[in-house]
């Protein structure tokens, strides 16, 4: 038996009514691997991440995380739909950063970063604050830790959101177009932070991005989604340098022309 | 036409009755605010429970408060629950306004962006922590003025308690009227009391509203 | 979906009333209560008419009237919103005669409730008028309309749509406050209930029927207003204008 991947989508389907968003998706992400997901709007990229974060239910198939089924659990040797406790235990391994930050507006930057460690992990306040301060320092915001989200720029808010997710010590981090809501001059600071955590933390990362340059330089693998299917995947050099599929080529041409 | 000596005479008596009015307002509103929050929270929890609550709210809002007061006062004793007039009346007022308050809270919950729920799930917060620490603190401040307006409305409706002979302001005024055959002064004074109090509190609510929307808006 | 729930509730209420009125222990009360309900409906309808007239008048006076008229409108709105319908009812009923003005209980009831709801309605009308985009005024000015023409032809029809839901709530409030007229001896639904209750002590059947009757009236209004809302949104905004 080979080692289980960190994340496995096994024949996963997702439908909204009669509309199939994802059709029998199979995708493995190895431990520590950094995978970028690219593709045209509406191709189902966000849905891939949201299902893993349990923000969307799935209509078929199984999700595996760190060798365990997430959407199901084994009971007397059979797989049955997971209960809330099981889901929460698995979910503890995953962190997510949203396109629209979703910081808690009534808490300071520090407050955002200690809320979950204290209430979910049961960490002491002092320890949580120390760790949060470290993380805020790493994202370059130690001076802003007592600011409220409303007092921070978009780039700063997104960096707080990254620190907040890391404070839960996830093994897997999901990034959904985390720079799309930012003014162009603020994109760099956030990408810099992601580069840094990629290098310093032993994290498995899945990111949806429109920053082709970043995907090329940062990821181990790039998946091109088209109409709910992986149309082509491979190392960045291949996808960007020598795409095999006609659709991939069209998409990249269009994006590079616009960018 | 207006008898000042008589006015001075009845002022202390009315003032004492005003205490009952204020007590009824305070207790009734505590019931309304708390129960309203519970109802709105149930609506969040599941669609089926939500429908039941929605129907209950519609029932309460579609029938007169006066009848509800009579109902609690006259019908509860038939099932062995004997309440004095004040308790039954205040309870009815509290229940009636709980229905209105629950709609206010509901609007507050609906105004919290979906992303806040999603971020809480991503951080693995429990549903209870999410509700208590993340959603509630954002949902409540914006609806405080609307709750304040219902507090004023509730206050203005306390004279209904006179219908089951609770001696609050209106009942006292009527008693004075029937004893002295002078209604002008007591009834007008009661009206003025409500008018002044409502205008003052409406002003307060407006100030609060401005402050809240500057702070949170 | 929601309108279906309301319709189901109304159907259930009417069914319950019909079934109960054939039950022993209930049926003796039905004729008297229906009589009372008829008076309740009369007061509500007349009160609603007065309320609408007062609301339009006061709102327009407050917005566009000359200064003294504006003050008068403000005073009317604040006084009638600042005290409750019951206080107003008692004041008109007990105090007016002492100034030599004698009125029957029925006109007093219609007057008090109509004025009360009209004051709230005035704020609804004013809010809806002010919510019509400024561009509409500017366009009508550019077409050289008089202010009355603008109001009647352009502004009020658009404001009308926004007014319907709050007016629906106000009509419900009006129906509910008709129960107060029992306290000035008018034999409405609530009065009949009280009277029968004192005479027979059959509290449960009487008040159950009364609640159901009020519910039927209120739900009918709510449902009608929902339909009006849909019709107005289609007819005024999508069909004719812009
Ligand atoms: N709640 C929903 N109800 C119905 N359809 C939905 C819902 N959420 C997403 N969809 C549909 O599912 C498809 C995939 O959505 P998804 O958000 O995953 O796309 P995406 O690849 O992330 O696009 P983008 O680049 O615009 O973010 C889209 O066609 C979208 O319209
Ligand atoms: Mg997306």
TrEMBL record, chain A:
Subcellular localization(s) per the UniProt record: Cell membrane
Locate the ABC transporter domain: which residues?
7-252
- Please name the Pfam families in this protein's record: ABC_tran
Q: Name one GO molecular function term.
A: ATP binding
Specify whether Nucleotide-binding is a keyword of the entry: yes
Topology class, membrane: Peripheral membrane protein
Q: Domain of life of the organism in this record?
A: Bacteria
The record's annotation in InterPro entries points to: AAA+_ATPase, ABC_ATPase_HisP-typ, ABC_transporter-like_ATP-bd, ABC_transporter-like_CS, Ectoine_EhuA, MetN_ABC_transporter-like, P-loop_NTPase
List the keywords (alphabetical): Amino-acid transport, ATP-binding, Cell membrane, Membrane, Nucleotide-binding, Transport
Question: Does the keyword section mention Endoplasmic reticulum?
Answer: no
Which CDD domains does the record cross-reference, listed alphabetically? ABC_HisP_GlnQ (cd03262)
Name the family.
Belongs to the ABC transporter superfamily.
Q: What is this protein called?
A: Amino-acid ABC transporter ATP-binding protein y4tH
Organism of derivation:
Shinella yambaruensis
From TrEMBL, chain B:
UniProt keyword list: Amino-acid transport, Cell membrane, Membrane, Transmembrane, Transmembrane helix, Transport
Principal location: membrane
SUPFAM superfamilies under this entry? MetI-like
Membrane topology according to the record: Multi-pass membrane protein
Q: Which InterPro entries match?
A: AA_ABC_transptr_permease_3TM, ArtM/GltK/GlnP/TcyL/YhdX-like, Ectoine_EhuD, MetI-like, MetI-like_sf
Q: Where in the cell is it found?
A: Cell inner membrane; Cell membrane
Instruction: Give the ABC transmembrane type-1 domain ranges.
Output: 14-205
| NCBIfam families per record | ectoine_ehuD, HEQRo_perm_3TM
Protein name according to UniProt: Ectoine/hydroxyectoine ABC transporter permease subunit EhuD
From TrEMBL, chain C:
What subcellular locations does the record give? Cell inner membrane; Cell membrane
Gene3D superfamilies recorded = MetI-like
Keyword match NADP: no
Question: What are the ABC transmembrane type-1 domain coordinates in residue numbering?
Answer: 37-225
Bilayer-crossing regions:
37-61, 73-94, 106-129, 203-228
Q: Which UniProt keywords apply?
A: Amino-acid transport, Cell membrane, Membrane, Transmembrane, Transmembrane helix, Transport
**From which domain of life does this come?**
Bacteria
Q: Could you tell me the membrane topology recorded for this protein?
A: Multi-pass membrane protein
Q: Does the keyword Flavoprotein apply?
A: no
To which protein family does this belong?
Belongs to the binding-protein-dependent transport system permease family. HisMQ subfamily.
Extract the PANTHER family matched here: L-CYSTINE TRANSPORT SYSTEM PERMEASE PROTEIN TCYL (PTHR30614:SF0), MEMBRANE COMPONENT OF AMINO ACID ABC TRANSPORTER (PTHR30614)
What NCBIfam families does this protein map onto?
Answer: ectoine_ehuC (TIGR03004), HEQRo_perm_3TM (TIGR01726)
* Protein name per its UniProtKB record: Ectoine/hydroxyectoine ABC transporter permease subunit EhuC
Organism name: Shinella yambaruensis
Identify the taxonomic lineage of the organism of origin: Bacteria, Pseudomonadati, Pseudomonadota, Alphaproteobacteria, Hyphomicrobiales
């Amino acid at each position: 038996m080979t080692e289980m991947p960190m994340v496995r989508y096994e024949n996963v389907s997702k439908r909204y009514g009669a509309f199939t968003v994802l059709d029998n998706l199979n995708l493995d992400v190895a431990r520590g691997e950094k995978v970028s997901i690219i593709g045209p709007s509406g191709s189902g990229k966000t849905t891939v991440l949201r299902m893993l974060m349990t923000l969307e239910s799935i209509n078929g198939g199984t999700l595996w995380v760190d060798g365990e089924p997430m959407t199901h659990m084994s009971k007397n040797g059979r797989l049955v739909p997971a209960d809330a406790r099981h889901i929460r235990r698995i979910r503890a391994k995953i962190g997510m950063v949203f396109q629209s930050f979703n910081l808690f507006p009534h808490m300071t930057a520090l407050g955002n970063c200690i809320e979950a460690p204290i209430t979910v992990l049961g960490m002491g306040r002092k320890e949580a604050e120390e760790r949060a301060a470290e993380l805020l320092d790493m994202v370059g915001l130690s001076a802003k830790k007592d600011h409220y989200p409303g007092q921070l720029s978009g780039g700063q808010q997104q960096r707080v959101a990254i620190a907040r997710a890391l404070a839960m010590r996830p093994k897997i981090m999901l990034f959904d177009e985390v720079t799309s809501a930012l003014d162009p001059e603020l994109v760099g600071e956030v990408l810099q932070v992601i580069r840094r955590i990629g290098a310093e933390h032993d994290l498995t990362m899945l990111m949806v991005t429109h920053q082709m340059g970043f995907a090329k330089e940062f990821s181990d693998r790039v998946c091109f989604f088209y109409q709910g299917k992986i149309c082509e995947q491979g190392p960045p050099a291949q996808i960007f340098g020598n795409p095999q599929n006609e659709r991939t080529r069209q998409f990249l041409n269009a994006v590079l022309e616009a960018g | 036409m207006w008898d000042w000596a008589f006015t001075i005479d009845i002022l202390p008596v009315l003032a004492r009755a005003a205490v009952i009015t204020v007590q009824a307002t305070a207790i009734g509103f505590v019931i309304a605010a708390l129960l309203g929050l519970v109802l709105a929270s149930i609506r969040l929890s599941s669609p089926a429970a939500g429908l039941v609550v929605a129907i209950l709210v519609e029932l309460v809002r579609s029938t007169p408060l006066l009848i509800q007061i009579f109902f609690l006062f006259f019908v509860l004793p038939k099932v062995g629950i004997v309440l004095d007039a004040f308790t039954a009346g205040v309870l009815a007022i509290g229940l009636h306004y709980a229905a209105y308050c629950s709609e206010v809270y509901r609007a507050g919950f609906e105004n919290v962006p979906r992303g806040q729920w999603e971020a809480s799930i991503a951080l693995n917060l429990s549903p209870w922590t999410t509700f208590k620490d993340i959603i509630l603190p954002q949902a409540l401040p914006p609806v405080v003025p609307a709750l304040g307006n219902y507090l004023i409305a509730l206050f203005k409706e306390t004279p209904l308690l006179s219908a089951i002979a609770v001696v609050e302001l209106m009942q006292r005024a009527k008693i004075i009227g029937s004893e002295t055959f002078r209604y002008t002064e007591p009834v007008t004074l009661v009206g003025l009391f409500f008018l002044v109090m409502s205008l003052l509190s409406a002003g307060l609510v407006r100030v609060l509203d401005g402050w809240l929307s500057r702070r949170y808006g | 979906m929601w309108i279906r729930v309301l319709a189901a509730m109304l159907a259930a209420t009417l069914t319950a009333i019909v079934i109960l009125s054939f039950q022993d222990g209930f049926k003796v009360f039905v004729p008297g209560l229906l009589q009372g309900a008829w008076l309740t409906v009369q007061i509500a309808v007349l009160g609603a008419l007065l309320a609408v007239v007062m609301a339009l008048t006061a709102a327009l006076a407050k917005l566009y009237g000359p200064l003294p008229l504006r003050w008068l409108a403000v005073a009317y709105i604040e006084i009638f919103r600042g005290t409750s319908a019951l206080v107003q009812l008692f004041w008109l009923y007990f105090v007016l005669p002492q100034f030599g003005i004698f009125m029957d209980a029925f006109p007093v009831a219609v007057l008090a409730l109509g004025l009360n709801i009209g004051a709230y309605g005035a704020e609804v009308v004013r809010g809806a008028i002010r919510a019509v985009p400024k561009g509409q005024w500017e366009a009508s000015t550019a077409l050289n309309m008089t202010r009355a023409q603008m109001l009647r032809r352009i502004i009020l029809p658009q404001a009308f749509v926004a007014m319907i839901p709050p007016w629906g709530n106000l009509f419900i409030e009006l129906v509910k406050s008709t129960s107060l007229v029992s306290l000035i001896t008018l034999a409405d639904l609530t009065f009949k209930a009280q009277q029968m209750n004192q005479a027979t002590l059959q509290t449960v059947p009487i008040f159950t029927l009364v609640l159901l009757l009020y519910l039927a009236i209120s739900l009918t209004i709510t449902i009608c207003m929902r339909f009006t809302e849909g019709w107005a949104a289609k007819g005024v905004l999508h069909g004719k204008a812009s």
